[in-house]
Amino acid sequence: MSVAAEMRRGWCPSVARPMPTGDGLLVRLSLPADSLPPALLHAIASCARRFGNGLVDLTRRGNLQLRGLSEATMPGLIEALSSFEGVASPHEAESLRDVMMSPLSGLDPKAICDVRPIVRALREKLAGEASLRALPAKFCFTVDDGGDFGLDQIAADIRFKARRESSDIFFMVALGGCEGEARGIGGCAPSSVPEIAVALARTFLNLRGASKDAPRRMAELLKRTEIETLSRSVGLLSLSSHRSDIVEGAASPGLREPGPPITMIYRREEDPASIGIAVPFGQLTADQLDDIANQTEAFGGEVRLTPWRTIFVANRSAMKALNTDYRLENSGLITREPDPRLNIAACPGKPACARSTVLTRENARMLGSVAQGLRLSSPGGVIGLHVSGCAKGCARSAVTKATLVGRDGRYDLVIDGVAHDPPVREGLTLEEAKIALEQIVEAMWAERGEP
Questions:
Q1: Sequence-ordered list of residues with C-beta below 8 angstroms from that of 71, at least 6 positions apart, any chain
Q2: pLDDT tens-digit series, residues 73-119
Q3: In terms of domains, do 77 and 9 share one?
Q4: Which of 112, 182, 283, 326 has the least CB density, counted as fewest CB within 10 Å?
């Protein structure tokens, strides 16, 4: 069993089942809506202050989590959330599966189609299938609109990605992993996405069995089962010759990793525009959440959460989007590039996480300049440095140029790997780690023949 598997909690924190951490109980909110209105953001910020420690996490799956709750404050939180439109109740959340869609669908001018109606239908169909409550907690569906803000780097179990051929729009169907790892099994019409997703999920449950070592993710199942078994279960065989590029096999190789999209997008000046605001290390204060809500409300917009630790504020015009950007710049959020915090992934660390023995985010801020060097000398990626409190690597599962892994108050250094990979150096102080990272940057520049 891998280190990551051994450290796995086995469930996702929820209102019904909060997770104990170093700073109290952790609760992930179930927010099934496409976008969040300012009033809901204010309500969530208020709950963070009243019932938690005032901190709100923006997760890698585009969810919000409240930190620092306790057994004493949980009843009050549950009562408060029950009055919020847009937050699923504990009972409703039990039937909701993890479905991610392109977060700017309906706003991205490069998108092939607006997938929001498809995702609503998919969520409704999944919620109506009681048998699918047996799916593992992290089992994930993605629906990608084919635009600039897609989900290529999200590790999903069942993937749908929009494609266009002439005037025909269809969805590629792929299983297990990120876009570059998933195995394609065919294509389907947009209207068939919910039905095919449910059929594939049922087949997964039927094939995985009920043993203690039963696969928890589709990629694990595909190591034990022929992919044709799954494709036949939904009638997806080979596609016609003019779509041969999406028949079984890995999807597009060499995908560039998306970074926090701090940018403004719009079609014309008079059309709605969206501005990206990055959240340092994926953690907001309640005050920052209120600031975002205030600016969104003032300029008439809505909020979209993303899996890139970024919040998009969609406003009524490009000028109003720029006004929002300027006003949030003083809130401690990232509204401009370059910013060294964009090049670092870091988990909460000590004391928020009981597993950690290092101050990950405090230390990460001290390594900003070297993280930029790691990123700039390693083209193709945005994150150059991963600072992890332990070998579980919660903040980042992708291979990173340099990963510092906390252990007994010091750091082990992993190169071109993930947190649970064997380190090349062990037991480094923060200063020793910084020197080692600087040496790596210098060597990389020298290898490229640049000063």
A1: 25
A2: 999 999 999 888 878 777 666 657 789 999 989 888 889 999 999 99
A3: yes
A4: 326
